[in-house]
Amino acid sequence: MRPGRGGARPSSRASGYRARRRSTWPTTWVRSGRPDNPRGCAARGAWEILRHRFPDHRNGNSVCKKQLFFCCAWPMIPSTTMKAPPSLPFEQIPRTDPLPERIYRQIHEKIANGEIDPSVRMTETQLAAMLGVSRTPLREALTRLRHEGLLAAGRGTSVASLSRTDLEEIMELRLLIEPYLAARAATLATPQGLRALDEVVRREVAALPRPALQKFVMANHDFRVVLVGLAGNKRLAEAASRHDSQIQALRRATLEKKSNRETVVRHHQLLVAALGRHDAQAAETIMRDLMLQARESILALIPAPRS
Questions:
Q1: What is the CATH number of the domain that holds 132?
Q2: Does pTM surpass 0.70?
Q3: CATH number at residue 233
Q4: pLDDT, tens digit, for every residue of 4-42?
Q5: What is the rounded CA–CA span in Å between residue 92 and residue 177?
Q6: How far is residue 106's CA from residue 43's CA, in Å, rounded to a whole number?
């Protein structure tokens, strides 16, 4: 027997334990054979033959038995006896967005539609119970919403309230970004994008009557999304979308008046025509004029502070 560490001879008890482990390992491996598993049953039968042919359990023979089993017996087992898995009428489960992203979108949509009262303050526990989620993904979504200025910072969760100064700063930023995005979209517009914009304008025209205000608001939002997408600048699109969401509730209030809705539709129709001609200068001028009128309508909702 081979000497152990330091030249010491291993004990017979340890040597016997290792011999038993080596000699019984294939038996343990094939023990899973069942009548409905032909390969497992054949493997166990082949091992029984080898076990009776080589009854000695000493180290040398036990190694030989395992080698003989895998080199001789296993290749003789026909692979055609394996049953093919049945074809099931299942489709692959589509990869969905992470849970924090879904929570973020749902709360973002409620804020943009004005469905959450800014005066209501809720705790994370209450929100988690309402949404049926744990607090960890909820906290991640709320942190993102606070970073974008849609939720107020501090204890509890509430919609951020905007002062007149906040609105003036947001509208000034939009006045700088969105005309440039319109000009860029006119340069990069594709036939598919123009058809999408034209379809959204048709939806706006159909939703001009007062009972269809929600449909008009949704179509108006979709128009901005398609237009910003045509500009092809992801970072500018994110900046425009973030500040656009902050004033969505006020925009909805301005769209209560039919004259404002008609102004929006008229500018959108002119903008689609300018994009179709790839006239960047005209698109920029039309969008700037629309932003100036939107600025006037939104600031009119909050009176200026008395000096």
A1: 1.10.10.10
A2: no
A3: 1.20.120.530
A4: 455 555 555 555 555 554 444 444 444 444 444 444 555
A5: 42
A6: 56
